[in-house]
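Schema walk-through. Below, the input block comes first and the output block second. Nothing else is stored per chain. Lengths vary across the set, and this one has 256 residues.
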Amino acid sequence: MEKIKVNGINLAYEHRGRSEPLVLIHGYPLDRTTWNEAASLLEPDFDLIIPDLRGMGQSDAVDKTYTVTDLASDIAGLLDHLKIQKAFIAGHSMGGYVALAFARAYPNRVRGLGIISSQVLADSSERKKGRYQTAKDVQEKGISVVVDSMTTKLSADARIQSFVREVMQRQKPAGIIGSVKAMAERDDSSDLFKSFKFSVVIIHGDADALIPVERGREMKAALPSAHYAELKGAGHMAMMESPQATVNALDRFLNN
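--- output ---
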């Protein structure tokens, strides 16, 4: 693990592997360690850059409000530091929102985009209200409210539940609050998604309890050229529940 100063914060990341650069962005309320197993399988084919998003893992948390575009800017700064102009960008869940924001802000730096257990739609007004309530609850009661509510939604697999619970318990309240507010205010990316000319890979578990598999199917319908991998029996943690299938799908970047 290394750290660099980007946009005034210390950003933690791992840099491993060889060949073509691929950024792996974790979801909420997690950190880069959720990519460990898949990253080991991807190392032979990709130069992996695996950050902890601002506020999460070992990266600095900030009290001020930020957006998914700010998170994308952190990724751009990290690539600048590594002297990587263009990369494949793959994001899981909230990481998918960051990947889409990166493609919106830096289209010329994207070689291909991977959207894992995520969606292009913005929050409904009801969902946005719920996120702000979560932020309020964390502020008043601590992160246990998120840990308790999210563990079984992330996966039905007891081994993975134990892992993600431990990951969530070590997150900082400010990071969780910042993340939910950033997600609440993200742009709808439906029209943007349809315009992509670079390679796109969509990966979704058919048993996802957080973002229904229909969102993945809708993305494939909106962009027929995208490679779509629907993982039978997998929940929200696709890259942990079906690591080899996830890697096989991401390897499609190298075949286009």
